[in-house]
Amino acid sequence: MQPIMTTILAIESSCDDTSAAVLRDDRLLSNVIASQKVHEQYGGVVPELASRAHEQNIIPVVDAAIRQAGIRKEEIDAVGFTRGPGLLGSLLVGVSFAKSFATALGKPLIEVNHLQAHVLSHFIASPPTPLLGGEGSRMKNDAPLSTPLSSAGEGLGVRPQFPFICLLVSGGHTQILLLRSHFDIECLGTTIDDAAGEAIDKAAKIMDLGYPGGPVIDRLAREGNPDAFRFATPHIEGYNYSFSGIKTSFLYFLRDRLKEEPDFIERHKADLCASIQKTIVSFLLKKVERAALDHHVRQVAIAGGVSANSFLRSELQRICQKHHWQALIPPFQFCTDNAAMVGIAAYFKYLQGDFADISLPPYTR
């Protein structure tokens, strides 16, 4: 007798990426993302433009996810959706569509916290056989493009064992979390002002590197000397962070150097990127290392958009090797916002019978 399998349709629309995914139990069948390039000219996400783009993208993205998964919509057992946190207008599009779709099919709804979804992405299993169109696709200007599969040893197939520590780090959030189970999550520390990703993007903006600045700094840093310049880091008690001082230190450093050498940034761009990146990553991992030691865990994970940073990934591996821990590093496709992570969180909630009422509104924080 074949075991009964659960098919989840997941929807993510918390910021500027519209995404839909289909999971069968914990195995990913499709993961489609539509990005919004319109924000690049403004140097950041414009909420009104984001919500309008979600309205245009949601139907074709969901349709593509269902087709790539090779299922009929009638096979879906539940619809998971990001309820928050995020931009209200963007969330409203995804939440409203999920409610309508689930109601039309007579299927239950499952609300998902965006931050929990990032952390639980480590539990996504790879599909049993290659799928037409690849494991995921990204849609830009209505053209689906293949998303490269993760390199060997990065996440898929390596399951966390409770308890473990996870550093959740993105443009909007920086937290050290202790996971005792899928939904028993204790926040050990958080930022008291800016997020790490925000600090990286601010440094990129100061150097006029464009938006989003994180990937540009990561690329240029590979050619630079991380010890070329030093920037101040604050002394914050416990596991908490503060990044506003690092941004100010970087800004004042450049202000003083530019007075003496007007083309200083252009001449030292790679070294500046490498140095500010090392400052932020070292500050992040110093507290993560201490938290792991204090709580006697054997696995340390990273999640969120900044977990795609190559220096953060390599430094985490170095620290874990030193302590004989296992580093849990997500595949690149699960670092940024995507519906696959929403789907795995929804699957674990489905197993608990934790369904949402249709009247639940989205929340921003």
Order of helices and strands: EEEHEHEHEEEEEHHHHHEHEH
Portion of residues in beta strands equals 15-25%
Under CATH at level 1, the class of the largest domain stands as: Alpha Beta
Gyration radius, in Å: 21 Å
Q: Given the structure, what is the number of helices? A: 10
| CA(first)-CA(last) distance | 45 Å
Unreliable sequence segments? 128-135, 140-157
Report the biggest beta sheet as strand number plus sense, adding barrel if it closes. Answer: 7 strands, mixed
- In the CATH hierarchy, the architecture of the largest domain is 2-Layer Sandwich
> How many domains?
2
Strand order of the largest sheet: 5-4-1-2-3-6-7
CATH superfamily of the largest domain: ATPase, nucleotide binding domain
Helix and strand content put the structural class at: alpha/beta
Q: Provide mean pLDDT, rounded.
A: 90
CATH topology of the largest domain: Nucleotidyltransferase, domain 5
Task: Characterise the protein shown here.
- By secondary structure, the protein is an alpha/beta fold.
- It has two domains: 7-153 and 335-351, ATPase, nucleotide binding domain (Nucleotidyltransferase, domain 5); 164-330, Nucleotidyltransferase, domain 5 (2-Layer Sandwich), CATH 3.30.420.40.
- It has helices spanning 47-69, 88-105, 114-120, 196-206, 213-221, 244-260, 264-267, 269-295, 310-323, 339-351, and strands at 7-12, 18-24, 27-34, 78-84, 109-113, 137-140, 143-146, 164-169, 174-179, 185-190, 299-303, 326-328.
- Helix 4 (196-206) packs antiparallel against helix 8 and helix 8 (269-295) packs parallel to helix 9.
- The longest helix has 27 residues, at 269-295.
- The termini are far apart.
- Mean pLDDT is 90; it is low at 128-135 and 140-157.
